[in-house]
TrEMBL record:
The protein, known as: PBP domain-containing protein
Signal peptide: 1-31
Keyword Signal: yes
Pfam families in the cross-refs: PBP_like_2
Length: 285
């Protein structure tokens, strides 16, 4: 498994790598080596929770294919795939995923696993949200003026947070919307957002997987959980080679097939931190 810098264009480094390989290997060997790796655009929650470090070595052992991960927000991951800079996408924003497929950029969306979101905040709970529904909790945070850290990065978590704010009566995505007094957007991944909340005593909306693997909790605690609105589904999609002919469809499909197979699903289920399962496989049988 290898993590890539998401900023350079994939086509640029692929072209440069190909020139280097051709210089030292016969053409057939270069093509064979290239086929053994794919680029996956995915989310910071899957990477920062430690899931990929557990999952991808098992896939490589089963297939011989190396997965090079670019971990960004879901919106960025989908945009990356739209440009042809990834072979497969593994993200968690069903509405955006279905739009991606409808536009012809993905071959098919297949559910893989789920976990849930939680609202974390200071143990003293100045907004008095503990035990409330998520809509009630967000209204209390807004009314109290308590500090709230939003990822603000168009990730799947950010999209879910905005959807829940809208259900609570605050459409923060609307042009010119007035945001709650303590609301701050960091434009960052889940780990940095949690660090900011821990250092400032703020509330923050997070996926449970990243929370369980997060070490720098200070006095943060889970205050709102269990609401059915906090369900968090992940899906996988192979990028459509009709849009980008250089996509490694066969190798990408082998990952999509494996991660939704009994072997892949069992590997997901066995990933735990301190005995607690982080993701729950639910691919269709």
């Amino acid at each position: 498994m290898e993590y890539l810098n998401p900023n350079p264009l994939r086509r640029r480094w692929v072209a440069a790598a190909a020139l280097c390989v051709v210089a030292v290997l016969p053409m057939g060997a270069a093509a064979q080596d290239a086929a053994k790796s794919i680029v996956m655009a995915s989310t910071t929650s899957t990477e920062q929770s430690g899931l990929f470090a557990h999952l991808l070595p098992s896939f490589k052992a089963a297939s011989g294919v190396e997965v090079r991960v670019v971990a960004v927000g879901t919106g960025q991951a989908l945009d990356m795939a739209r440009r042809g800079d990834a072979d497969v996408v593994f993200v968690h924003d069903q509405v955006a995923e279905e739009k991606f497929v409808a536009e012809g950029f993905g071959l098919k969306r297949v559910p893989v696993m789920y976990n849930d979101f939680v609202l974390v905040g200071p143990a003293a709970d100045p907004a008095k949200v503990k035990g409330a529904t998520i809509s009630e909790a967000l209204r209390k945070v807004a009314a109290s003026g308590a500090s709230f850290i939003s990822r603000g990065d168009k990730s799947g978590t950010h999209a879910a947070e905005l959807r829940l704010w809208r259900q609570a009566g605050s459409d923060l995505a609307a042009p010119g919307a007035t945001k709650p007094a303590g609301y701050k957007e960091c434009g960052c991944g889940m780990g940095p957002a949690l660090n900011m909340a821990a250092s400032t005593g703020a509330y923050v909306f997070t996926d449970r997987g990243t929370w369980l693997s997060f070490k720098n909790r200070a006095d943060l605690a889970v205050l709102v959980e269990g609401d059915k609105a906090l369900f968090n589904q992940y899906g996988v999609m192979v990028v459509n080679p009709a849009k980008h002919p250089h996509v490694k469809q066969a190798a990408a499909q082998s990952f999509a097939d494996w991660v939704t197979s009994p072997a892949g699903q069992a590997t997901i289920a066995t990933y735990k931190i301190n005995g607690e399962q982080l993701f729950f496989p639910n691919a269709p049988r």
